[in-house]
Every structure is written in structure tokens, then in C-alpha cells.
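SECTION: protein entry
WANTED: fold as C-alpha cells:
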Amino acid sequence: MELETKVEANVQQAVPFFAVSSIEASLRFYIHGLDFKMKYQWTDEGKLRWCWLEIGSAALMLQEFRPGGDHSWVGQGEGKVGLGVSICFQCKDALALYREFRARGIETSRPFVGNHMWVVGLSDPDGYKLFFESPTDTPEESEYSDEG
């Protein structure tokens, strides 16, 4: 008789890691604009270089690399380092976040319904696309109106 062994999943979370051109500008955007909280940080030669940020149960990491020498990073060609990268955050109420972000002066796209979810899109200072999404029964392709 064989005993069935239950194996617990080893992988627990995926955390996006963004190379950023200015950690100060990114922190203003994520902490002051989107209300992320800093959980961990690493200071190198007196400068904050890396941090782990959280909002709810989601997280991401930011790192500003040295401009040259050891531990430097060269972007993928010309332009902003975040071009072509999108992250989707699943939320309880994306429209509430839309209103919060706008009240903090963060530019967002007009929310719309896609794939049965309200979608609020924005870009960070390095061109990373962020989408905050929540389930809805509102018809597909509907757009949110700020006028009640």
C-alpha cells in the first residue's frame, strides 16, 4: 500500500523587479502618489539603491543601478527602461484607486471595462505600465464617467 504524500508548493510569490533611472522620482510616484509602503531597503555608498515596496498583498522592487563600473546596468537600448513592461494588480475596487490616485495628482487613463474588469492604467516615471483591475458586471468596453 502506497502512502500518498501531499507536497506543499515551494513558490509563493512573484515580485516584479524594476530598474529605475531615479529612485527618488520613483519613490515619490509609488509612495506619495500610489500609497505603496517601503518594507525593505538597501543603501550603497550612502545612497538608497534598492527597495521593496508593498501595497496590500502585492509587492515590487525598485533599483537604481550605479551609472558605471561594478554593479552597473545598461538599459535595453534607447529610451526609458520600462518600455514594453506591464504589471496588472488585481484589486477589490479599481475605481476607488482611480479616485485616490487622481486626488494625489497622478495622471491615469480613463477607466474602462475589459475582460469583465474595471481597468485603471497609468505609467511610472520610467515607462513601466501599471494596471489596477477589479471584477465588474458592467458591460464590456464601458467607460467610467467622473460625473456621478
Observations:
- The CA atoms of residues 77 and 83 lie 10 Å apart.
- The mean pLDDT is 89.
- The beta strands are 17-19, 37-44, 47-55, 58-63, 86-90, 112-114, 117-123, 129-135.
- Residues 23-33 form the longest helix (11 residues).
